[in-house]
Amino acid sequence: MKRTIIGTTTLGLLVGVVAGAGIMLNDTAHDSVKQAIGQGATSNAAAAGVGGTTAVNVSSMDLDAAIQAVQSHRAAMLETQLKDQMDSIKKRNEDIAGLNDTLAKVIALQSGNAPYTLAAELKTKLQQAGAKYASKATLTADELKATIDEIKGIIDSLNNSQQMDMLRMQSLTNKRNEGFETITNSIKKMQESRSSNIGNMR
Predict the structure, then answer these.
(1) Across residues 71-88, what is the average pLDDT?
(2) What is the DSSP string of 15-67?
(3) What mean pLDDT, rounded, does the chain reach?
(4) Could you tell me where the beta strands, DSSP code E, fall in the chain?
(5) 3-state DSSP call for residue 124?
(6) What span, in angstroms and rounded, lies between the C-alpha atoms of 47 and 57?
């Protein structure tokens, strides 16, 4: 009986660590765990699937194995999100570099006289950027200035988004570190509790 109580309490602590100690990665994961708890699924699963991952079934595991399973599951979720975030940042950097190159070529047209003729490659780049006058073969002085301002605005917007991406990646990294620290502390507490209970049974 005591062993059952200890196991149930520890599993409850394990689920509590996953669901309520700040180691869930986003609202989707948090809501999934809350739903699982509401459906009485805590006896079988200690983490909910996110982004195609599956729940961790701990019903047939001992406590140590369950902890390792949850830890591995959580690490995989974090690594997936961090990789996706890094890929997003890399793609945005490439977009910004391409737009800066396009901007330099558009600004270079100012050295000539209006109307300004758009080379086929530059025209394609402007169309990809969504520039207002990209469909025209030639631009007036006002249209060229408007295009320069437009591309600058797009670059500024991407730079702002990039800063938000970096903050999110830092947040994910912090959550990973905090999560592992939380689980480590939980394991330590469970070991101390187990040792105390064994001592009391003697």
Answers:
(1) 84
(2) HHHHHHSS---SHHHHHHHHHHHHTTGGGTBSS---TTPPP-B-TTS-HHHHH
(3) 75
(4) 116-117, 138-139
(5) helix
(6) 8
